[in-house]
């Protein structure tokens, strides 16, 4: 196995070690604090306990995060207010819900000093003067512990999505989001410290109780504030449809990004507003909605902002006035809005550059692509992205109208010797290697060279660079260089950096101050071209161009022909600066003018933005037909299931009960009431042990660290107050440290690493149930301590023996923890190394294609229907899934086939799956995250789908993003055109439907003259009312008529209908009808598991003589049998049905009200006049492939794309 070295393995292990060390030190301080109060009992002891406690609490506070993780928008959305800014807490929830075990132990540590300060030499009467204060403080500590226990549930409440709307006329104003959530945990620490100080000072116990209760108030206030905000948000959502309809917007500006990328929207707002049409801003997450709302002022202050988290919520804003949608990025969530064909969908982007985002194949899904100049149009084809030319509109780049041309006075100053002003604007490192084009790693050398020439520098890094720690460190060092130069050099005061260059000015403002610019492959390059000023470009680290040969760099990034070129190693930097810094008349002046027209449009400077504004108006005046496209799933639900609420309340109750019981045991033990303490400990154990045991056999849950720590402290106190306090203190402290380190054990075993099936080289040990049973060991150890202490009181001569027994048991527990820590560390190392070796393992496997499954549902049938044919291609391949449950589902399908399945949770993790041998990626559904892999242009991306029907899912404009579309027959190709979806003909390959090869054809002579079998196969309802074409609500009447005719029925419900309570009831009623008829008539009807699990859909076809369905993929597949079928026309007339679904013309339409059901069944089961039409329709829908050879077209098409050549 390779050594970790200084790579990711060592970094992860160092972080894990640092975290475990911090946890151990804090546990030691808190345990020492508790025992200082318990064992010493003096004033010095009590104040020593306070000091140690404060140190432990400070350690906890230091570990609270100062900002939310960049990939966690639901937490990052919370501001921290002025106090947070003062304390450098940027955003998020701080320590809320974190380190609960240590914080509960800290609260319990206070009890010792309060109790012993009032009980030594004062007897042990429970309600005597001495003990009343201790009881009060015991209650107070229990309150503190309950407050800490509530925090994880406060976090869940705060993270719940809520509707957001701002600026809609007549609607209530949504209260500001709380900026105090991060304060709850620090206040809890302060309250704990204050209670400790009061105890050491000898204050009455009731004061400690009042302080502890006061510590609950901030959490209560937070809950009240959040609930009030959610009530207003709910009212906004109820009124949303009417409010938007009253506002009558003509277009929307849309972003589906979950983070704050406000600049992408802000750059377009003034120019969209110039169109003079009403519009609203739509986001899919609250963070960007609230961020953009903060930026709206002046003439744009009244522009409404709406957050539609769930895709179904988008229905609420679809008013008759709406005509167009404009998109500022290629987010994977854009497809949710694309489904509305009544809108003209226009891609704007957020900058024009030679980077992959500017020729992203997903742009093909839009009706229009607004480009800055002809170069942008050519860029797509140059990178193998085929998009119909009619979609492009050259509109210029309106934002650059504010970029000023060279100032003659400034040129004169330069000629007179004024120092040059140089803008250095490096891009960011990007999400994946293809967009790793930044020169920021060379920033120090570049800026150093500029300073050496006496230049004034404007340093403006990309804002996204701050998301990376290493890049942020570089930025800080460069800023320090500029600051130092400003102090040392006479001209240094002219430098701009930090807020002066990044917030006080935008990028275009920086360009106006600069004489020249240095950048890399970035959108600022084409923007700067508008100025006509000189610029230089730095080749990316991945470029093969050497210092003496940068032709390949220009070939890869044509805009570079207008720039002075610098290799990434900076060998050419001095020579480039010599030319770049000429005050006037540089040799590239004419080339820049030519490239400017090519990249920014050949429009005059005056009125430059008018072309864009006119194009916006034209898009609003050109609505296509109204058809809606159902999406895969509603991924933005704002509701919480009752099961989730029940589980949360159950977990909270268990934590509170066990915690309070543990505090009671501690208080009783310190008072010398061993049997009472033992009883309380038993209550805590009876709650905790079943909880931990259940977790050992299922998903991890609440580990009850806090109650277990307090229980161990209580057991030690019981032994220490009656036996040898020194031994008890040492043993208890060591065991508390060990218990605290269970967190490190869990983290080591829960680190995901690589999750795969069929790739033994990447196997990482799975979590073992004994880890949770180890937690149970700490409870048993506590009970043993109580038992020994109590029995020891009855048998004084055995005290030392019992102390030794407890120490021995504690040593055994400690040894187990040490073993577990070593095991967890080894597992962590294995997981990190496995993650790092994914690329090497796949290189050795050399898969030639991959099957990509980005959805969270449906793998069983969607991948399952294609898997046999993937295997028959005869080439090695891998299945990639983005959902862990789907990996399990797919692995069940591939077991015994040798096909590997790999789980890749993040966009960055996809980097390692595209190996040189891989040439093709197949897609079986239109999952939102398909776009993540489609951006990899070294692959040919092939759309397969998981069925062929007339439903909107089979003519989704999003399919245009794929390089090839495998169509079953010409009907599939014509379907797109019929619904005004423009896709180049070159993308289609007619390959048939291989799954139909197992469908047996009908033999007219063999049709039974007696009992007939009819398959009833309704589709599912779909997520939207406007796309429902299913006949299940009519199913009872249809089946009743079939039964009246003596027909044997196979009822196969769509699996997705089981997700809806109403549809489950309909299925159950039809099933009961069939069961009752089977008992009465003896006809062997099939339904439920028999028809849906034990039989495939093809088995059902073969077992039937005819079929009744609705607009479903089963129609085209059933054509392969040649058998008659009927189609229920749901939501449309029979003529409309045939217009929308031509295959229905070869069947027998049934009206939605079933008024013609009897006649249709006569034709279906008796006369069957459409036999010849069905044969023609079969060829039209399934291709002209002979019976038994339906897979030939698919296999040939796959072989053609794979070829024989392996990429190098």
Automatic annotation (TrEMBL):
GO terms for molecular function: CDP-glycerol glycerophosphotransferase activity. One of its GO terms (cellular component) is membrane. SUPFAM superfamilies: UDP-Glycosyltransferase/glycogen phosphorylase (SSF53756). Keywords: Membrane, Transmembrane, Transmembrane helix. The chain crosses the membrane at residues 12-38, 44-62, 95-114, 134-158, 179-200, 206-223, 675-693, 727-745, 774-792, 804-821, 849-871. It comes from the Bacteria. Residues 623-642 are annotated as: Disordered. PANTHER family: TEICHOIC ACID GLYCEROL-PHOSPHATE PRIMASE, TEICHOIC ACID GLYCEROL-PHOSPHATE TRANSFERASE. This is CDP-Glycerol:Poly(Glycerophosphate) glycerophosphotransferase.
């Amino acid at each position: 196995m390779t050594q970790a070295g200084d790579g990711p393995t060592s970094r992860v292990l160092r972080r894990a070690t640092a975290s475990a060390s911090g946890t151990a030190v804090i546990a030691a301080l808190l345990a020492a604090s508790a025992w200082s109060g318990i064992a010493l009992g003096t004033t010095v002891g009590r104040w020593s306990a306070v000091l140690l406690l404060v140190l432990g609490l400070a350690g906890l506070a230091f570990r609270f995060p100062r900002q939310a993780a960049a990939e966690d928008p639901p937490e990052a959305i919370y501001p921290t207010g002025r106090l947070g800014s003062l304390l450098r807490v940027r955003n998020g929830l701080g320590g809320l819900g974190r380190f609960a075990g240590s914080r509960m132990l800290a609260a319990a540590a206070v009890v010792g000093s309060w109790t012993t300060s009032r009980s030594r030499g004062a007897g042990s009467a429970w309600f005597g003067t001495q003990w009343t204060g201790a009881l009060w403080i015991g209650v107070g500590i229990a309150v503190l512990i309950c407050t800490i226990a509530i925090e994880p549930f406060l976090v869940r409440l705060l993270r719940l999505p809520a509707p957001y709307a701002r600026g809609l006329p007549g609607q209530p104003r949504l209260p500001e989001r709380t900026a105090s959530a991060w304060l709850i945990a620090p206040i809890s620490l302060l309250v704990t410290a204050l209670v400790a100080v009061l105890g050491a000072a000898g204050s009455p116990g009731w004061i400690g109780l009042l302080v502890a209760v006061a510590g609950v108030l901030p959490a209560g206030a937070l809950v009240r504030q959040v609930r009030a905000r959610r009530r207003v948000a709910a009212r906004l959502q109820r009124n949303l449809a009417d409010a938007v309809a009253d506002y009558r917007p003509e277009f929307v500006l849309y972003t589906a990004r979950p983070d704050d990328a406000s600049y992408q929207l802000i750059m377009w707002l003034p120019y969209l507003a110039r169109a003079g049409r009403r519009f609203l801003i739509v986001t899919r997450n609250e963070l960007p909605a609230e961020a953009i709302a903060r930026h709206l002022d002046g003439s744009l202050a009244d522009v409404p902002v709406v957050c539609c988290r769930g895709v179904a919520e988008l229905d609420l804003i679809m008013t008759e006035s709406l005509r167009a949608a404009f998109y500022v990025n290629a987010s994977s969530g854009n497809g949710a809005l694309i489904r509305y064909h009544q809108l003209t969908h226009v891609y704007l982007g957020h900058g024009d550059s030679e980077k992959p985002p500017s020729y992203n194949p997903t742009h093909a899904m839009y009706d229009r692509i607004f480009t800055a100049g002809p170069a942008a149009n050519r860029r797509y084809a140059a990178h193998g992205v085929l998009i119909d030319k009619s979609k492009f509109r050259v509109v210029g780049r309106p934002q650059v109208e504010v970029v000023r041309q060279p100032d003659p006075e400034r040129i004169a100053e330069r000629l007179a010797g004024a120092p040059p002003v140089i803008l250095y604007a490096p891009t960011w490192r990007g999400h994946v290697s293809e967009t790793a084009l930044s020169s920021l790693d060379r920033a120090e050398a570049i800026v150093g060279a500029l300073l050496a020439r006496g230049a004034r520098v404007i340093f403006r890094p990309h804002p996204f660079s701050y998301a990376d720690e290493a890049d942020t460190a570089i930025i800080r060092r460069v800023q320090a260089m500029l600051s130092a130069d400003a102090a040392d050099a006479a001209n240094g005061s002219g430098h701009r950096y930090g807020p002066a260059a990044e917030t006080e000015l935008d990028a275009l403002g920086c360009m106006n101050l600069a004489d020249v610019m240095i950048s890399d492959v970035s959108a600022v390059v084409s923007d700067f071209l508008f100025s006509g000023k000189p610029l230089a470009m730095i080749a990316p680290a991945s470029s093969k161009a050497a210092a003496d040969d940068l032709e390949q760099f220009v070939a890869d990034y044509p805009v570079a022909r207008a720039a002075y070129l610098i290799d990434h190693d900076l060998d050419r930097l001095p020579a480039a600066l010599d030319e770049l810094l000429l005050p006037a008349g540089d040799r590239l002046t004419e080339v820049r003018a030519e490239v400017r027209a090519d990249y920014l449009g050949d429009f005059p400077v005056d009125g430059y933005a008018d072309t864009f504004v006119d194009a916006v108006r034209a898009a609003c005046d050109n609505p296509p037909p109204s058809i809606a496209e159902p999406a895969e799933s509603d991924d933005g639900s704002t509701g919480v299931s009752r099961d989730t609420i029940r589980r949360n309340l159950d977990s909270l109750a268990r934590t509170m009960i066990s915690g309070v019981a543990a505090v009671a045991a501690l208080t009783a033990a310190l008072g010398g009431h061993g049997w009472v303490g033992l009883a309380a400990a038993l209550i805590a154990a009876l709650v905790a042990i079943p909880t931990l045991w259940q977790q050992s056999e299922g998903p991890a849950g609440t580990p009850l660290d806090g109650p277990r720590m307090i229980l161990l402290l209580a057991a030690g106190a019981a032994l220490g107050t009656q036996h040898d306090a020194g031994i008890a203190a040492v043993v208890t402290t060591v065991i508390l440290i060990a218990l605290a380190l269970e967190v490190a054990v869990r983290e080591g075993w829960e680190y995901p690493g690589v999750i795969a099936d069929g790739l033994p080289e990447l196997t990482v040990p799975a979590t073992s149930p004994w880890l949770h049973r180890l937690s149970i060991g700490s409870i048993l150890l506590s009970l043993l301590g109580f038992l020994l202490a109590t029995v020891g009181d009855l048998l004084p001569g055995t005290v030392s023996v019992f102390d030794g027994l407890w120490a021995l048991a504690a040593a055994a527990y400690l040894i187990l923890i040490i073993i577990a820590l070593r095991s967890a560390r080894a597992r962590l190392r294995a997981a990190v190394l496995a993650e790092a070796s994914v690329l090497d393992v796949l290189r050795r496997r050399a898969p030639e294609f991959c099957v990509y499954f980005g959805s969270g549902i449906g793998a069983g049938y969607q991948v399952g229907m294609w898997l046999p044919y993937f295997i028959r291609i005869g080439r090695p391949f891998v299945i990639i899934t983005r959902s862990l449950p789907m990996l399990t589902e797919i692995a069940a399908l591939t077991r015994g086939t040798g096909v590997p399945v790999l789980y890749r949770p993040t966009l960055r993790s996809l980097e390692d799956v595209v190996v040189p041998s891989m040439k093709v990626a197949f897609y079986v559904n239109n999952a939102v995250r398909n776009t993540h892999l489609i951006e990899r242009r070294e692959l040919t991306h092939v759309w397969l789908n998981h069925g062929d029907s007339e439903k909107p899912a089979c003519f989704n404009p999003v399919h245009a993003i794929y390089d090839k579309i495998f169509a079953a027959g010409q009907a599939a190709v014509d379907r797109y055109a019929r619904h005004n979806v423009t896709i180049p003909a070159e993308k289609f390959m007619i390959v048939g439907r291989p799954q139909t090869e197992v469908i047996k054809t009908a033999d007219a002579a063999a049709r039974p003259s007696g009992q007939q079998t009819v398959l009833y196969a309704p589709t599912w309802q779909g997520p939207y009312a406007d796309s429902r074409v299913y006949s299940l609500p009519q199913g009872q009447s249809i089946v009743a008529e079939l039964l009246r005719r003596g027909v044997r029925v196979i009822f196969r419900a769509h699996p997705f209908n089981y997700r809806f309570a109403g549809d489950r009831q309909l299925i159950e009623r039809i099933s009961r009808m069939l069961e009752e008829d089977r008992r009465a008539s003896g006809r062997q009807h099939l339904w439920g598991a028999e028809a849906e699990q034990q039989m495939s859909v093809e088995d059902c076809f073969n077992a039937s003589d005819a079929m009744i369905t609705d607009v479903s993929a089963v129609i085209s597949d059933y054509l392969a049998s040649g058998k008659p079928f009927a189609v229920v026309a749901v939501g449309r007339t029979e003529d409309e049905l045939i217009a929308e679904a031509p295959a229905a013309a070869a069947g027998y339409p049934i009206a939605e009200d079933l008024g013609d059901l009897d006649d249709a069944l006569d034709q279906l089961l008796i006369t069957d006049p459409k036999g010849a039409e069905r044969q023609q329709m079969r060829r039209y829908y399934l291709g002209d492939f002979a019976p038994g050879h339906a897979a030939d077209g698919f296999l040939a098409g796959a072989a053609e794309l794979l070829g024989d050549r392996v990429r190098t």
